[in-house]
Amino acid sequence: MARNLVPFLVLLFWISICQAASIFQPISDSHRYAALELFRPTDGVFGSLEETYEVLRTFDILGIQEKPDINAATCKSVSEVLGSSAALKDLFYALNVNGVLKCEIKEEIYESITSRLRTVLNDARSLSEFYYSIGSLLLLKEQSSGVDLSLMDADGIFQSIKALSQSDGRWRYSSNNPESSTYAAGLALEALAGVVSLASSDIDQNMIGTVKNDILKLFDSIEKYDDGALYFEEKVVDAYEHHGPLATTSSVVRGLTAFTAVTSGSLNLPGDTIFGLAKFFLGIGVPGDAKDLFNQIDSLACLDTNRVSIPLILSLPATVLSLTKEDQLKVRVNTVLGSVAPRLTVKIVRAFLSGSKDTSVIEGEELKFDTQTSLHILEAFPKTFDVGNYVFVFEIILHDSEQMDIYATGGRIRVPIYVSGVVKIENAEIAVLDSDLGSIETQKKLDLVGESVVSLSANHLQKLRLLFQLATPQGHGFKPHQAFLKLRHESGVEHIFVVEGSGKQFEIILDFLGLVEKFFYLSGRYDIQLTVGDAVMENSFIRAIGHIDLDLPEAPEKAPRPPLQPVDPYTRYGPKAEISHIFRAPEKRPPKELSLTFLGLTFLPFLGFLIGLLRLGVNLKNFPTSTVPATFAFLFHLSIAAVILLYMFFWLKLDLFTTLKALGILGVFLVFVGHRTLSHLASTSAKLKSA
Amino acid sequence: MARSTSKDAQALFQSLRSAYTATPTTLKIIDLYVIYAVFTALIQVAYMAIVGSFPFNSFLSGVLSCIGTAVLAVCLRIQVNKENKEFKDLAPERAFADFVLCNLVLHLVIINFLG
Questions:
Q1: Which of A140, A149, A272, A572 has the greatest number of CB atoms lying within 10 Å of its CB?
Q2: Neighbours of A651 (CB within 10 A)
Q3: pLDDT for the residue A239
Q4: How far is A142 from A99, CA to CA, in rounded Å?
Q5: Which of A612, A648, A682 comes nearest B93 by C-beta?
């Protein structure tokens, strides 16, 4: 059960995130904190050079000043990589890191790397070789002054890269790999951009035009979320390195911006597409993974300065506004990285209560721009503006019409806004009515704002009536999400009733005659609790308003039993009640003295027996006198004593088997000596007789 | 009437005593032993009557030990008595050996049952 629930909860959570993120916030301080939290150096370095580059680039974009001090250790590994014949990828990232840290590298090293890269580029077959070598050459161009880096055979290289492209705008990693990939397309575009900027002479415009066409084809395969966010997804499942939507989209964005930056002429991409991409990156929020954070921030930085169109993000500092506190509607417009937008006006196209689309509350109103806070402010709501859930439709209008091509505003933006306020609660009263006549038995005023409590009593022939009025700040009737009356019996049985209302008036009448069965015939004290709550009601409350003593008739035999009250879940994990084992009660024993007395008494007959023997004049004259029979007779008595002793041990500690074994041996001996003794006695007596 | 009865009784006891005096000493010893065993059993029964029968097995083994040995002694007396022509061929020593053996077996069981 719980297992089935988890995906469902994740889905719910995801849906709630999606809805919450329908207004996107630009990059803010929370990203900076996340970056400082995610990127922590260990022993003065950030793992590999690739990771180091990602950290430095992220910090650079976010403008984080207090970077961890990693220069010494990192520059050491940068110069090690540059000085050796390391893999192309490592070389590329070492140069990237060097570009940020500006380590001291000798010109000769740059020269040797350049010649190595040129050789690699001439024999390059796979896309990654092109990408890393061209990328590295581009970085060398920025970092070294003395080396000549222009490409003579730029057209040839351009064509070799272009040869890897597919008809749908995607690219292959190498000529012998038929799988095409969107991620590779991003890499290829970046490499092509590098070739264009490194070329010693202009590249053939026709070829650039074809690549632009490829880009447009690539954008045909873009995916879309419900909230308008656009992204690329890698279709190849069995590629040796699979990339998620974030990494794929990020790669395409990098390639796109790099390519459009170095080529002239416009790309026929609609601004909304770029805006959708920005939505995708911002919709992620703050990623919990270092790689994701880099991809997000780096892509947004590319979008922030791209030549196709720069997205402008409309965000609201608060989407819950209090009518009572006279909050103002404030709107902020920034670029994705949070920098200032050009001069523009924000216009409320219309605003309407969610659920009633047809009646606009505000229509076509422009917001005033406050230069100090750079916020667009609606100074006052119209007079008739009331509490409720509204949907505001905004539009951004750029002042300079030429900028329309540079910026993407995302068209009309719908933002849900909650306008809350204090709802007036008036004329609350509670009364007990007589059922037949409807006459009022007791009536009490209720102060639902204060702390007053009432105490009432009623029997099953009476009714309970609760009345109150709700009114919005504008004096209109208000229907809250929740209006519940709860009666709770002493035993914990609860009954919840919905308080119905029309207009301002809310009323509930509980006829106890009809409710006795529902109340399980439970007489006694019921606590009354009233709940009135709504998202836009600032003074929502849940209040105990008193208690009522109910006198209900005795339950008939077949009446339903009240349900068992659920056990408090906390006690389930608390200490259990101690288990007391019930043993059979020990038998009554007599007092010790009595038992000892009787032990003594049992010796009395024995004493009497001995005395009797003496009186009879018993003697041992018959005991054999000669040595051998005397010995046997003695042994006979001794073995009898031994058997009795053995029995005593059996009683005290031995078990039956040990006893029987010992008895077997003793018995044989006893029979032997007994036979000898008794036969001797018999023969003696026989002799006496015959004599 | 009553006087004559008591006189008769006295006369009866007198004749019994004189007759018993003639009994051999060995038989008297056995009689004494039987009385001793029976009295011991009676004391245990009295104890049981006062404090109750718990533990019952111990009470039983105690009383049966006494009764059993008394019965065996009676058997010994029958066999040893020379008047009993039935056991004329049986040597008294053989009877005594039987008595000892039976007693040992009886008490093995008793001890086992004693608990």
A1: A140
A2: 15
A3: 55
A4: 8
A5: A682
Q: Which residue ranges in chain A fall short of pLDDT 70? A: 1-23, 236-241, 437-438
Q: How far apart are CA B109 and CA B115, in angstroms?
A: 11
- Asked if A363 contacts A350 with a C-beta cutoff of 8 angstroms, the reply is yes
Answer yes or no: do B25 and A651 touch at CB < 8 A.
Answer: no
Please tell me the distance in Å from B80's CA to the nearest CA on chain A. Answer: 13
Answer whether B107 sits within 8 Å of A679, measured CB to CB: no
pLDDT tens-place string over residues A45-64:
788 888 889 988 998 898 88
Please indicate whether, in this complex, the C-beta atoms of B25 and A643 are within 8 angstroms of each other: no
**What pLDDT score was predicted for residue A362?**
86
| Complex-level ipTM | 0.91
Q: Which residues of B touch A602 (CB under 8 A)?
A: 40, 43-44
Q: Are B113 and B60 in contact (CB under 8 A)?
A: yes
Interface contact B94-A678, CB threshold 8 A: yes
Nearest to A317 by CA among A327, A303, A331, A304: A331
Place of tokens 């929020």: A285
- What does the pLDDT look like over B22-31, one tens digit per residue? 888 889 999 9
Which residue on chain B is closest to A654 by alpha carbon? B112
A490, A511, A518 from A460: Cα distances, Å: 18, 8, 12
Query: What is the reported pTM?
Result: 0.62
Long-range contacts of A603-611 (CB under 8 A, 24+ apart): A604/B39, A604/B43, A605/B35, A605/B36, A605/B37, A605/B39, A605/B40, A605/B43, A606/B36, A606/B40, A608/B35, A608/B36, A608/B39, A609/B32, A609/B33, A609/B35, A609/B36
Say whether residue A609 is in contact with chain B using an 8 A CB cutoff. yes
Do B93 and A679 contact (CB within 8 A), yes or no? Answer: yes
B43·A605 Cβ contact <8 A? yes
pLDDT of B103 above 90 = yes
* CB-nearest partner of B36 from A598, A608, A651: A608
CA distance A553 to chain B (A): 56
Chain A residues with CB-CB distance to B93 below 8 A = 678-679, 681-682, 685
Q: Are A338 and A27 in contact (CB under 8 A)?
A: yes
- Cβ-based contacts of B51 with chain A (< 8 Å): 589-590, 594-595
